[in-house]
């Protein structure tokens, strides 16, 4: 197995070396893309799994273990791969009926399959023995389709199944591994098709052309949007709040906010069957009518290129596919209508750079302005499951607490030995969907959930075994500003100062102040509107400083000496140079601020704390997407997500900050959302890289 993994690593490394010789910084011409980029995405390997069969169900059981199942000819069979889809073997035949879907649990010995007769089968020993758990319904579809197409095992251990009742598709729910079921009733107006996990919840589509969403583990479902009057089949979630959805007429729709709102982004030939997300804005799209082409997007669905038909047999098409991620590679596995498995493998660095070059936003910082990054790394770890879109880092006694938005968890990492950081616990709780921010006071960890509008409190005296002690709802959905309506960007950041916590609420453009003297019973004591968004917060000497991102372009100063009656004392607004204000830091009498959309770093004089005065700002072409700040001695460290870099800024003279140098590295790709300093250690959490990196600042200084 180790040798096989080594060979996989060599394969993706070779693929990573295949770079197009093109100019960066401007979008590539479509002809250049077709000639130099597309061939890499057509380098499929083909494996015939079952002659004449149809593979419409495929799931990853764990690590490199993949399971697929058959419909049509040779139906009811399961095949397994233990080397990331390179080779396959027959596993079992639990049924004589079509298998339409598989539900994995994270344990390779326990998984479920669904048949076209709405039968749920379960194994607890890796497929050697099977039991029919339940036949959920008779076929009530009037158009000749199977009775059921989707089964899912959620992160809370709940089983969900959809049916295709033409009078309204039902969802069935079990919280005891299929022993008992609850029929949640008709969700859509017609049959339901595919269930998809989307970060903070679940979505389902179907024949009525609408999207439905649940954020309570499938207990209740809300109609989100009517996209079309034709059937929706293909759907995929690609992280960073982005989804793609295709319909039977060839229309492609996109959501950039976890499925809460959609727009049409393309029209292609052929009816949509499935998407296969590659990552970083690249996605395959298969159609099952007309020429049965596979298409590719490299910009999140805006533009598409045809890759032609599959290299299998005539008339075949991509039926259903998945993406398997390793620390440094992306593997796609797609079952086809004729019983083949089509596989592609890419180095993550190759996909990142290729997508950036195609879209004209790849910018390599000049070597004269950079210092080597790899030589400053002390230790690191990668975990694609537990470090899924980290947003923040707070530290205490050698432990890092990292909220992970897409993972709906807080990763707790022991870095007391910085050479070998270890994940010691992953804190999961239905109250922390969209875990966005964390703060510590003593032995208590406060976790902010953007979706749930909740602050949950945990006793972390033993970081390996956190204990929940309370939770409180703060605000809710809604919008305050006339020009900014959002039911999506809710709670954003938490800052603790003394006995009080300050919570920003973006869609309400509001700040809540909590009394946390009794962590088992935190209490909201006041709130106020900012008038221009609410994102990062920082309190210093009884003054609250606010970065007004979402949608603001302001630095807002608030007198909080009276916590019940806070008073806004100043607002510095600049729709150009402060657009997307999102991070704050203080050293002595200087306040440092970055604005993501403006690409600026600011220094403010706060000798008069309630009336900040502009000292200076930097707008540098290599500081693209500045999003977080950390300060150590006379340096400010600013993360830039757009060109995956870290700016080191000399702030010895606060009135005239100067960029010293940059560190830029592929392992920093979109690392903007997690930074902290502990002594001489700089800690980074990578959003797309799913990594935790420890850097020696003394080594950085020597470079």
From TrEMBL:
Any Pfam family the entry gives: LVIVD
Signal sequence region: 1-24
Keywords from the named record: Signal
Record PANTHER family: DIHYDRO-HEME D1 DEHYDROGENASE (PTHR47197:SF3), PROTEIN NIRF (PTHR47197)
Protein name according to UniProt: Photosynthesis system II assembly factor Ycf48/Hcf136-like domain-containing protein
